[in-house]
From TrEMBL:
One of its GO terms (molecular function) is quinate 3-dehydrogenase (NAD+) activity. Its EC number is 1.1.1.24. The keyword Hydrolase does not apply. This is Quinate dehydrogenase. It comes from Podospora bellae-mahoneyi. CDD domains: NAD_bind_Shikimate_DH. SUPFAM superfamilies: Aminoacid dehydrogenase-like, N-terminal domain, NAD(P)-binding Rossmann-fold domains.
Length: 334
């Protein structure tokens, strides 16, 4: 990876104007007022609850830390900013989750196997005194896992049974990995409106050694013949189906929900509301529905474990849940 000893960013006014507001963040007075600071690094961050979640954690621990939004895909800028001695780590979101990996010194197994990094944390280099290693983790996987572990009283509901993942993006990849590694799914059904996205997921998972369990469910007739799932992770927006492929996906999901075995469904969509049409259908069919905010909260708690060195039991999880629920209530009433 490329390293530099520079801890400040020197820029000319024209460049500052071209790349604002991202570059302006390096001069943000809030950084100087914090004991330690981190970043939320990605694009379209205005609605993200990540800074709120982490601020609640730090306030609960009595830490003068804060996470600042860095709305940018400028990797060179980011790699300069992380050299600040007061930098503790970053949440990494789209479009930077894959692009950041070549710049990291170490990847956790989840990060390596999923092929995406949503968490940057620091560790001391044992071979070079004073040098900090840039390490990558994927806590989205833990968010999926803990959503089920923390909310489903009886693991027999989903363990040693097939599972279903709806979608074909980054969240779906994390869900597949969590179901495979932690939740003991015997098979993982994939349902999505775009066959090419499913093919890409299956290809990548097989290359990384955990694709043998994947089954692409393409039709209602096929779904009717399959054993019912115990866990469902829905990773699609809360839009009414319009195209024929979208309608087919909805029908396949309804077939799975209608089978005799009733399990738990994690509805990953929570923006603008965690109470989705798909979630309502699942509840009506007798399924337990886990709100997407649960996955968001638990992946954030896992991040703070890396950054603070504390266990989840030592972090103010209850206060985080209260703060996220309050923010959602504000948004729904707006």
């Amino acid at each position: 990876m490329t390293t530099t000893t520079t801890t400040t960013v020197t820029i000319t006014p024209p460049l500052l104007q071209q790349q604002a507001p991202a570059l302006q963040l390096s001069f943000d007075p809030r950084i100087q007022n914090l004991t330690k600071h981190g970043f939320l690094f990605g694009k379209k961050l205005a609605a993200s609850m990540s800074p709120l979640l982490h601020d609640v954690v730090y306030q609960g621990l009595g830490l003068n830390w804060g996470q600042l939004r860095l709305d940018s895909d400028d990797m060179d800028l980011f790699l300069n900013l992380v050299r600040d001695p007061k930098f503790y780590g970053a949440s990494v979101t789209m479009p930077n989750k894959v692009a950041i990996i070549p710049h990291l010194d170490y990847l956790t197994p989840e990060c390596r196997d999923v092929g995406a990094c949503n968490t940057l944390f620091l560790r001391d280099d044992p071979n070079t005194p004073g040098r900090r290693l840039l390490c990558g983790a994927n806590t989205d996987v833990i968010g999926v896992r803990e959503s089920f572990v923390q909310n489903v009283p009886n693991a027999d509901v989903y363990e040693n049974r097939p599972a279903l993942v709806v979608g074909g993006g980054g969240a779906a990849r994390s869900a597949v990995y969590a179901l495979h590694k932690y939740l003991q799914a015997t098979k993982i059904y994939l349902v999505n409106r775009d066959p090419s996205e499913v093919e890409a997921v299956m290809k990548e998972c097989k290359e990384r050694g955990y694709g043998d369990k994947l089954v692409y469910v393409e039709s209602v007739e096929q779904a009717e013949r399959l054993e019912g799932p115990g866990a469902i992770v829905a990773c699609i927006p809360d839009f009414a189906p319009v195209t024929e492929s979208e309608k087919t996906v909805r029908k396949i999901i309804e077939v799975m929900l209608g089978k005799d075995h009733k399990g738990a469904m994690l509805e990953m969509c929570y923006n603008p509301s965690p109470f989705t049409a798909l979630g309502a259908i699942a509840e009506k069919k007798g399924w337990q529905v886990i709100l997407g905010t649960e996955a968001m909260i638990w992946q954030g708690i896992e991040q703070d474990k890396y950054w603070t060195g504390l266990d989840a039991s030592e972090l103010p999880v209850a206060q985080v849940k209260e703060a996220i629920a309050a923010r959602l209530a504000e948004l729904s009433n707006a």
